[in-house]
Amino acid sequence: xxxxxxxxxxxxxxxxxxxxxxxxxxxxxxxxxxxxxxxxxxxxxxxxxxxxxxxxxxxxxxxxxxxxxxxxxxxxxxxxxxxxxxxxxxxxxxxxxxxxxxxxxxxxxxxxxxxxxxxxxxxxxxxxxxxxxxxxxxxxxxxxxxxxxxxxxxxxxxxxxxxxxxxxxxxxxxxxxxxxxxxxxxxxxxxxxxxxxxxxxxxxxxxxxxxxxxxxxxxxxxxxxxxxxxxxxxxxxxxxxxxxxxxxxxxxxxxxxxxxxxxxxxxxxxxx
Amino acid sequence: xxxxxxxxxxxxxxxxxxxxxxxxxxxxxxxxxxxxxxxxxxxxxxxxxxxxxxxxxxxxxxxxxxxxxxxxxxxxxxxxxxxxxxxxxxxxxxxxxxxxxxxxxxxxxxxxxxxxxxxxxxxxxxxxxxxxxxxxxxxxxxxxxxxxxxxxxxxxxxxxxxxxxxxxxxxxxxxxxxxxxxxxxxxxxxxxxxxxxxxxxxxxxxxxxxxxxxxxxxxxxxxxxxxxxxxxxxxxxxxxxxxxxxxxxxxxxxxxxxxxxxxxxxxxxxxx
Lengths: 272, 272
Known about the structure:
The first copy, chain A, is of the alpha/beta class.
């Protein structure tokens, strides 16, 4: 793991940095890829950012994120689809081959209704995405987010959704943070690989104890997730893409980001 | 639901009250049952508390809680088994027909190892429990607790564990708070009922947004769980026991508990 060519970092991981600084710093450190969060593109031309990334010798891995399809209100669902079409256009301009979908959930309705609306939303966006050369990756989110961020909370549920949509342009983004606890995860990762829909692999760690539902993620090796085991399962299931470090952490965002980048690389080498 | 004869309240729900006050207040309100948490027995004779409960016209529904079996260290596992034998004796003295198990997890080892140790622990305790007329109810805990409180995080996992132990004295305690998000829950509740192992049914609600992983539970009707739907599924699967209100909430513990008891009863009548 001394080779960093398959290491990708999410701009949200080093959130205090502008994307220009992030590109420069990641490239200087030898990092291979970058996943861009939409807030990092604010006020910028996505095509120009894409050129800057490639000129620095980095690869654009994904754009984060689309999704949030479900709503009791039909107009809100239509607006969500329009927003996702904009996300697809941004990804195409940026040169991102994948858009990660945080699918959404409306707590005012049954989860099964939200799941149906997610499938409808993806189908409504997918044709444009396929034409643009942008794949859609459903990210199952930890069940603690079922009250709003996503009604897709397990690998099984993500696979079932992909079966429902049934298009090779729609697959799964696996984040160990969300699925590490699941006794069915290994079998469902294999199912995902067999179907040819393993599109992305995100890593970090689960801090013990976790102080915040959202912003207390840990570096690989600091928590209770066996990240290398998941890497072997994912790669043994046919995935050969980037290992993407995605960490939301108020404690890491508050420290010197250059030093933090060194820590990320060290954690990747030892526990990635 | 005007009839409160099948309503049970956990002493932990009205934690600021001593058990003596809780018994008096629940009985006066017409509540049918009480589930006793071990901390409420501190410094008291369980047999005397049991008599006091029955004299007040209440039924002892369960004792909470045993479990916490897994540990990397073998001596710690032996100590946990000894502690659980004490819990069984307490339940027998109290007259509780069920002990609820929060199974535990040691984040220093793989979850599968913790699951094996849970099965071993239950088997080691079960003979004494059976002889004492005390059934053991495995409570699957929400996946956000897989880092320490329990390696059993879904109904499927609880059913698989019961299959492994394979004794009619060991079953499942269902808490809607832990399983509401799970697309497999309905099928696994039915599996649980068919196997004759639906031992307990706990209700509350999931607040949106949830501020704390442990202490921000809501009253039925305040959150996004369809409690009546789960009640119908559980009762349609053969369960005819108490509906137990179990709420950990710093905000409710800080209010007048008599007023809170009225709110619990109102929520039970409208959304139980």
